[in-house]
Amino acid sequence: MATADPATMEARAEVFRSTYGRVKAEISKVIVGHDEIIHGVLTCLFVGGHALLEGVPGLGKTLLVRTLASSLSLDFNRIQFTPDLMPADITGTNIVMEAPDGKRVFSFQRGPIFSQIVLADEINRATPKTQSALLEAMQEHSVTIGGQVHRLKEPFFVMATQNPIEQEGTYPLPEAQLDRFLFKLVVGYSTREELGVILDRTTRGERPSAEPVIDGETLIRMQGLVREVIVAPHVQDYAIRLALATHPEGPFAADVTNQYIRWGSSPRGVQTLVLAAKVRALLDGRYNVSFEDLRRVYLPSLRHRILLNFEAQAEGIDADDVLLKVLGAVPERADEKAPAAKAG
Fold first, then answer.
1. Cα 265 from Cα 243, distance rounded (Å)
2. Is 110 inside any structural domain?
3. pTM for the full model?
4. In terms of domains, do 149 and 277 share one?
5. 280-300 burial string, b = 16+ CB within 10 Å, else e?
6. Which residues lie closer than 8 Å to 233 by C-beta, 6 or more apart?
7. pLDDT tens digits along 231-254
């Protein structure tokens, strides 16, 4: 494969940073703070993956996704997940119609999943059966009804929000569905200064809004550029060992892995690490992935891909605590000692 001309690559990378910055600026007109969460959502967007945002009600998760949709010239649908929501309410269904000749025929009525950005609001309020209605759409970008495959329009993203599972009336997402999300982003509380800005904007009649700045074709080109960023063999091996270090009793397992993890990351975990790190590299003006890029995307890439055992749950240890210890136990090079690394 021919190597891209450095000057051309530099120009395309500058377009990427400019495009990314324009979208982020539009979102920041409406969303106050949450800079890392916005970065995480935009990383999913420019990689072409789905995002899961978790946090207690009222922190702006739904508003963030709505604002993102407003900054893009893409179709947008919102699905409010409730305990009585059925799979057909998401995907659509065949209904009996009467043809002009008097015969009855089946006609497929599309559901709200047939969009480009789908907000699955409070996804863990619905039953696992209904949650799983998204699985094929998220993985294959298609919906199969009555034996017929219906393709979804590209680009396609699911942006889901959920409340913490310890709240009443929620259903934990199945592990197979969690693995389909590129990132799991934990939305925290706003700071004192941010709350002041929020009050200024919302109690004085101001109505800031985001304007569309890019379309689907541009976004697909940006996603293609991300995949052209170079990953050196030793950096790729570091990403691989970061994922393998979450496998209990495996050859690269850390002590904390064997103590607290029941199941480790799937191959999608290391794919996410590399692709998300490529976005970070481009934003820093580089065309090759660094060790630090991988560390900065480590937690959102893997926190939903490991399953803790009973001991961890009994001691009140969460996935982030375990993963940070795993990260500190994995050296950058296989023949070195582990660095004192921190996730960004």
1. 6
2. no
3. 0.88
4. no
5. bbbbeeebebbbebbbbbbbb
6. none
7. 999 999 999 999 999 999 888 888
